[in-house]
Amino acid sequence: MDLGDYISAMAQAGDTATLQRVFVSALAREGVDWFAYARSFDPSNPDMNEADYRLGNFPEMWAERYFDAGYDASDPVRLYAFRTAQPFTWGEAEARIGAERPVPPILDEAANVGLSAGATIALFGPGGRLYSVSFGAAQPGVEREWDLNRLGILAHQLHLTYERLTEPDPVASTTLTVREQDVLHWCARGKSNTDISEIMGISPNTVDYYMRRIYNKLGVNSRTPAALMGIMTGIIQP
């Protein structure tokens, strides 16, 4: 798919599910296996250091481990994204941040679950907002073969199209993963994060990670509206 066809396909996307399919297809031609698109907040600010997840298909096992270990607050990739507008590999971020402070073994752990290579594009928006698109692959070292400038173009188009699709109606084409639906199901039944973690066999931090994803997808900021929106849109049963 050349860039013209990609931009045309993005322009025709009518929902975020189609948007993700087009993006994943384009990434496959670039040798990229997975991606994550999020709005990021400064990890050094303890009052606002959470990532606002939007789209992606990173391995679920890694996503759960990442948030369960609290890596979102100490990830060198997130820290470095606030310093550069240039595309960068995860190894570069680890080296730059690691020269200044100890960093957790995030990349080693990612490699252990098959996420062996990666790069990130920082996208800056109005009001100082920062968004990022991270790319991952199973083949070690393959990121050195990626055309990061080309990936940057793909990422910017993803961001612009997502904004177009979600501005008018944030829940018009919402889809939750099976895991997110399970969390929302128990949330709607009045269960706390601790209760849900015990029921589902995951940590409270991981439940919180899923709740934040649910809030973002449904365009709400608390549990009760999330539960009501889930029922009203048929995502979960009353």
From TrEMBL:
<feature type="domain" description="HTH luxR-type">
    <location>
        <begin position="169"/>
        <end position="234"/>
    </location>
</feature>
<dbReference type="GO" id="GO:0003677">
    <property type="term" value="F:DNA binding"/>
</dbReference>
<dbReference type="InterPro" id="IPR000792">
    <property type="entry name" value="Tscrpt_reg_LuxR_C"/>
</dbReference>
<dbReference type="Pfam" id="PF00196">
    <property type="entry name" value="GerE"/>
</dbReference>
<keyword id="KW-0804">Transcription</keyword>
<dbReference type="InterPro" id="IPR016032">
    <property type="entry name" value="Sig_transdc_resp-reg_C-effctor"/>
</dbReference>
<dbReference type="InterPro" id="IPR005143">
    <property type="entry name" value="TF_LuxR_autoind-bd_dom"/>
</dbReference>
<dbReference type="InterPro" id="IPR036693">
    <property type="entry name" value="TF_LuxR_autoind-bd_dom_sf"/>
</dbReference>
<dbReference type="GO" id="GO:0006355">
    <property type="term" value="P:regulation of DNA-templated transcription"/>
</dbReference>
<dbReference type="Pfam" id="PF03472">
    <property type="entry name" value="Autoind_bind"/>
</dbReference>
<keyword id="KW-0805">Transcription regulation</keyword>
<protein>
    <submittedName>
        <fullName>LuxR family transcriptional regulator</fullName>
    </submittedName>
</protein>
<keyword id="KW-0238">DNA-binding</keyword>
<dbReference type="InterPro" id="IPR036388">
    <property type="entry name" value="WH-like_DNA-bd_sf"/>
</dbReference>
